[in-house]
């Protein structure tokens, strides 16, 4: 039995992984796939990939592109969710800020440098023509719990996170959502370390085959909306809206999308150079 470690955020996007793990589908193929939750998001997963703590990551597109360009020994092997991520822009419910324009020059809570919450703060700032050097300030808070503490205690002013995962915090009056910022690219990809690509590609292909079969039929699972609502503490109508908006992919991310994403990150000074498609992506 080959042990392989995989990481992802503890969010509804990754329920298909847990269902296939619970059904023992990887073990039937001779693979002991060990799932690791990363509440800290993409920045934490990039670090784990670099330090060989995980072999595979289900990770935000923008974050892994930045990490690979900066030397992370990994490559994208597939798109996982092809629709954009709908980032909610949140403040404390007691905050005086009412509009996104009010946030200009205030402090954004981010899970860590290079995370989605960090990089999407730049996208939001660009959308409102802010000065990226003067109008963006950051407070590292590690995860969603850290964001709750930072915003309610006044250590940070706003926080970008996937709006459906933060909806329970909005419903209970902890956060107030004052806007949205969709990512201008497919939100999640599957990345693998160069080591597993070079030495265990057959296992990697098998893992992708299993998860692709699951995601292609995910919306057809009986009462999947109720399962998600119960598992993640969400309202049924919110889950149904999310399911209608979300499309999984079973394909390799294409060169046009990668280059367009790189160009936007380069224009924001998030990456220092634009690299060839083959530097970022590996076709199994």
Low-confidence stretches: none
Percent range of helical residues: 40-55%
Q: Write out the strand line-up for the largest beta sheet, numbering strands in chain order.
A: 2-1-3-10-4
Q: If you consult CATH, what is the topology of the largest domain?
A: D-Maltodextrin-Binding Protein, domain 2
CATH class of the largest domain: Alpha Beta
How many DSSP E strands? Answer: 10
How many DSSP H or I helices? Answer: 12
Q: How much is the radius of gyration in Å? A: 19 Å
H and E string: EHEHEHEEEHEHEHEEHHHHHH
Shape: globular
Q: Name the beta content range.
A: 15-25%
**Head-to-tail CA distance between termini:** 21 Å
Main sheet summary: 5 strands, mixed
Number of domain units: 2
Mean pLDDT: 96
Give the CATH architecture of the largest domain: 3-Layer(aba) Sandwich
CATH superfamily of the largest domain: Periplasmic binding protein-like II
3D architecture notes:
The chain has 284 residues and is α/β, with parallel strands linked by helices. It is built from twelve helices and ten strands. The strands form two sheets. It has a five-stranded mixed sheet with strand order 2-1-3-10-4, with helices on both faces. Strands 7-6-8-5-9 form a five-stranded mixed sheet, with helices on both faces. Helix 1 crosses helix 8 (201-216), helix 3 (61-69) crosses helix 11 and helix 9 crosses helix 10. The longest helix has 16 residues, at 201-216. The chain is globular, with a radius of gyration of 19 Å.
